[in-house]
Amino acid sequence: MSYSKKALVGIIMGSSSDSRIMKGAAEILDEFKIKHEDQIVSAHRTPARLSEYAEHAEKMGFKVIIAGAGGAAHLPGMMASHTTIPVIGVPILVYNDKHTKKTGNSKFSAFGGLDSLLSISEMPTGSPVVAVGVNKAGNAGIYAIKILANEFPKLKIKLKQHKIIQHKSVLKESDELKKHGLSKFVKKKFK
Ligand code: RP5
């Protein structure tokens, strides 16, 4: 079953190069059968579109926005300044391969994603954004589900089941580790 016929979450990213990371948010929302709408909105290449998107998100009735960006990463903070919808920011360790082909520059941000993490989490007082870890789009998805669970009690039950599954999987791995011993376990698991 789906919780709403309409999308409850808006997923946005600054570039198509962020999509391989941002799909982590979509995957967990899909697993929980939560509808989301996905778009590319660039804070520096399409600044007007950023405010248009905020209006669109409010009109659509999104409950949460998940915004991923790399580098100076203005998208989540600017989105939060345009809307009252809670924004979860995903700092991205930039892949930037669109330009790599042309310039031969490094595929990754010079600061390893710390640049985006700080840009997102250090929003000045009054316009907060919740930041997950670098490239942790899946966590942004789980956090969005936690927010939605306040409104949809069935989601809270599903989240509890999700925790039980995580708990069981750790126990299973620990049993395997105990059974095989550390050396064999590592060989088996990470060969
Ligand atoms: C940011 O610049 C995007 O969020 C992306 O992470 C980064 C690089 O974008 P591309 O040059 O790959 O389009 O705006």
Properties at a glance:
single chain; Rossmann fold; 13% strand; 191 residues; 2 domains; 8 helices; 5 strands; binds 5-O-phosphono-beta-D-ribofuranose
What does this structure look like?
- The structure is a single chain.
- With 191 residues, the chain is α/β, with parallel strands linked by helices.
- It has two domains: 9-151, 3-Layer(aba) Sandwich (Rossmann fold), CATH 3.40.50; 162-189.
- Helices cover 52% and strands 13% of the residues.
- The chain has a five-stranded parallel β-sheet, with helices on both faces.
- Helix 2 (47-60) crosses helix 3 (75-82) and helix 7 packs across helix 8 (182-189).
- The model has no long low-confidence stretch (mean pLDDT 93).
- The structure holds 5-O-phosphono-beta-D-ribofuranose.
- 5-O-phosphono-beta-D-ribofuranose (RP5) binds at residues 14-15, 17-18, 42, 69-71, 92, 94, 96, 98-99.
Quick overview:
By secondary structure, the chain is α/β, with parallel strands linked by helices. It has helices at residues 19-31, 47-60, 75-82, 97-103, 114-121, 137-149, 153-180, 182-189, and strands at 9-13, 36-40, 64-70, 87-92, 130-131. The protein has two domains: 9-151, Rossmann fold (3-Layer(aba) Sandwich); 162-189.
